[in-house]
Amino acid sequence: MSKHATQPISLFHGGIIRSALLDSLKKLDPRILWRNPVMFCVEIASVITLVTFALSLAGLNKEPAWFTGTVSVWLWLTVIFATFAEALAEGRGKARAASLRKSRTDVTAKLLKKPEFGSDFTTVGASQLRKGDHILVEAPDMIAGDGDVVAGAALVNEAAVTGESAPVVRESGGDRSAVTGGTEVIANAIIVRITANPGETFLDRMISLIEGAKRRKSPNEVALEVLLVALTVVFLLVCANISPLSIYSVKSAGQGTPISLTILVALFVCLAPTTIAALLPAIGIAGMDRLFQKNVIALSGRAIEAAGDVNILLLDKTGTITLGNREAVAFVPVGGYTERELAETALMASLADETPEGRSIVLLASKSYGLKPEALPLDAEIIAFSADTRLSGINTGGMRYRKGASDSTIAFVKRLGARTIPDTLEDVVDKIARGGATPLVVCRDGEIFGVINLKDIVKGGIQERFQQLRSMGIKTIMVTGDNPLTAAAIAAEAQVDDFLAQAKPEDKLRLIREYQEAGYMVAMTGDGTNDAPALAQADVAVAMNTGTQAAKEAANIIDLDSNPTKLLDIVEVGKQILMTRGNLTTFSISNDIAKYFAIIPAMMLSIYPQLGILNVMHLATPFSAILSAVIFNGAIIPLLIPLALKGTKFRPMPAEKLLIHNLLVYGVGGIIAPFVGIKAIDLVVGLLTS
Prior knowledge:
Elements: H1 14-26, H2 30-33, H3 37-57, H4 65-102, E1 108-112, E2 121-125, E3 134-138, E4 147-157, H5 159-162, E5 168-171, E6 178-179, E7 184-194, H6 202-211, H7 219-253, H8 261-271, H9 274-293, E8 296-298, H10 301-307, E9 312-316, H11 317-321, E10 327-333, H12 339-350, H13 356-369, E11 381-383, E12 391-396, E13 399-404, H14 406-415, H15 425-434, E14 438-444, E15 447-455, H16 462-471, E16 475-479, H17 484-494, E17 498-500, H18 505-517, E18 522-526, H19 532-537, E19 540-544, H20 549-554, E20 557-559, H21 567-604, H22 622-646, H23 655-689
Parallel strand pairs: 9-16, 9-18, 16-17, 18-19, 19-20
Antiparallel strand pairs: 1-2, 1-3, 3-7, 4-5, 4-6, 4-7, 8-20, 10-15, 11-12, 12-13, 13-14, 14-15
């Protein structure tokens, strides 16, 4: 098994560290740094202290050069630590993107003149393909672009996308028709209709998202940034007013010296929310990277955060809860017809059905009764399945062959003049449905011949995952087009909390809107074209990678493993991001309490000696007190980078207990840590300057 795209990358991988250090220096460019207003202000403050250091060296500043120089160095380090945190988070994504790029080559494609096997083709480069083109892909060709299979079936190696080397079947019809550019056909041949222009493919989008190049800030992140800017402006105004106040105080008290520019700058930087401002960009980028490690691609930060608050999960049954490829396992005749007669009629009704279910009916009729599938008659009118009619079949030779849901088929034959329905039909349908299978009723014109037993298989281990979701307060609802009896049997086996049977696309949409209007955050997982409207409406829309292109385009999260309960991982990462931001914000603000006791007594001591009582840490000198606070303010950032990248550990517990726990750890811890840290630094500074 190859997991080249999703291998865990160490936080401190040598190559990533070197690249991040270089990128962190590039991010010092004011044209880039202004996007982080707090750190942009710290950079301006660093320039100011650099000037005061130069003045001290020239003898034009009364403060010692060692003091102004050290303050300047640590303010610059504070900015560099902030840009390094962001660059390190981006670097991990770039390393993964580089791995993906190795699989993206400009392969050649067989561009068809007509979308059918045997048609003439011309060989072109993948970059020349356009949306709507049809290409022939034969083993061992690479698929040249994203698309849908419109003819044929093939085994496809999708390791370039999922990292999983086990091949998967991609075929026309049904919900397993989507293919991704850069993957390889290893058996058989397919015709693919291209659905994305060059540069807009799924692999291109993955690379951009992983690198963070197109990561848009989520509403929560924007709101927090506004708060940080507001706090910064407040502290800026406070520091600006301290200078004239100190001049007035010196004149009134007749002693001391006005507060210097270096000290004012140090005070501003220490009081501004630099810790969370430095780590905020890295938290969001790292969250998307953690999801990618789980083989999930988040197309927006908003979706991840919304996942942290999800309490309703809707799951499409076929291909999501069940394996998806239902198989015909038996023909059950009614009304005096024989199994062979039923098989012949079912075969005719399935001649034009390219879905896996339709093919399994043809295969069962062929193997069990020696029936040979005929070519589709020239006069045949194909009746495709739709969510409204829930029937499919053909019209040929003056006959109407249909198969579909029981109620739909009964309504169809009645419209054609049928006066009676076989007495045993209802019992047969109920028996098959209660066994968790899907009954398809078969008819020709106004006569019902019997029922096809389509067997559904629930995915292994799904019950345990649903139990985990339930323990997190998430209600699971299975949505299916099956009749209520089949739906109830599958729901009971899969252990979902509720189900919606005989659901049309508009029913799914209505159910989501009802829950949203009631104040719930709704997540939807699906893989079919008929799931697309519901996916577009849901707060969190998770599309299976095995699904159709329409489902992927409507979703904001794509699960490369096509595991419907992957939402559990998505929820955990969403909660981790929200908790990490909240915890580091609490820690950052709590830090200021200790800084007040360090800087304010030191800077005002020469004017008001009485303030010495506030020097509860017994810091050696005013210079060492201010310098210790500045050093702690900068040094705490790299110490917290691992937490920002890994995220706060999620603990499944009630919100009230979680809040109390985090306040104790990061609130109280944020008060105690700087008292200890500043005092320790002061002792070292005292030894070095004595």
